[in-house]
Amino acid sequence: MKTVQSPKSPRNTRGKTCDLCNKSTAEINCNYCSKMICSICTELTATEISSLKKGKTKLKFECKICQSGQKSDPNQSLLSVINELREQICKLEAKLDGNNNPGDQNNGNLDIDAVVNEMEERRIRSRNVIMFQIVESNETDPEKRIKHDKQKAMQILANLDHQIQENEIFVRRLGKPGNPTRPLRVTMKNERDVKNVLRKSNANKNIKNDLTPIQRNKLKELNEKLQDKIQAGEEGWTIKYVRGHPQLWRVQTPTDQNSNT
């Protein structure tokens, strides 16, 4: 079993040349191999580099070589998260501003705080599942309503053969009162329980993971692209999660198998 290499001590980059392009002046060290990287090769903004160098965030910088090799730490894949957030935040801002041309937004202006906040929000939500189409209790006593929701959640989990105690989950209705079937958020002990429930409920569309607005927007776009491919007659396309990130993925179809024989 291969283990992730521990982050190395930084080297002084002052006046040194980038270890990747051998042209520009190095700005920052890779936290995993200690290579000295210039701002162009990092694909980070000056603000992001400054925050990393000053230790304003617990995130670690990982160079392209480490990202593509075995040294990569999936929990600290900074560049992939930043690139995804740049795209999604700019599109969301464009919608809020009434701007239909998100390409005019400056992707380089994403503050590192937005990345940190998004990653923290994802960490918090990773312990939640959202259950739909569960009718609420007519009781006026809040404690009785919570007990009703817990019992309903426990019944669903039991049907999935997921062993958990009632005191190990927390429930909360989402949205304003008035809708008799508001979504029910169920918070579990850890992310492992959530993954187990989602895996067992794969065919149940009334149980979903708790996504941030940026993640929901990303998934919506992928679904739209998937539908475009299906309508165009392209076979074998699906959405697959790779290292926690949804991507369009093409699987082998019977047509592909026949063409290979």
UniProtKB/TrEMBL annotation:
The lineage of its organism: Eukaryota, Metazoa, Ecdysozoa, Arthropoda, Hexapoda. The keyword Metal-binding applies. The keyword Metal-binding applies. Residues 13-43 form the B box-type domain. Signal peptide: none annotated. GO terms for molecular function: zinc ion binding. This is B box-type domain-containing protein. It comes from the Eukaryota. PROSITE patterns: ZF_BBOX. Keywords: Metal-binding, Zinc, Zinc-finger. SUPFAM superfamilies: FYVE/PHD zinc finger.
